[in-house]
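Chapter summary example.
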Amino acid sequence: MAELHVQIVTPAGIVYDHRASMVIVKAIDGQLGIMPEHTPIIVPLTINGVRIKRVTNDAEDLIAVNGGIMEVRNNVCSIIADSAERSRDIDVERAFAAKHRAEESLRKAEAVHNNKQQKRAEISLRKAINRISVSKHNRS
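The structure predicted for these 140 residues follows.
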């Protein structure tokens, strides 16, 4: 049976490196399911969880990825992101604190009509919500 080698890399190093039967990502144009023998592809990713169905124990891993690029070629799925965290590694309290800070920043930016600050706060809020959502996968 064919399988994918999945690797998620950030500037801090390798976050994930395993064999998989399927990878599900959210690209800018929508959700993609990648299986072995997939046609070569390079796509930009959004802030979202990456679902990986492992070959070895039929488990599913979820990784919080804050954007990036995915390349699939020759049964290798490489994701390069600014930041990524496995569900088991997410500090939920810190994620909720980041969410509250982003919400406050967003309110302030909207009050003074500062579009640049508003965009930054919206991105920070999406990242915090993504981390919180992915962390729930580890606790169920």
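To summarize the output: The two ends are 30 Å apart (CA to CA).
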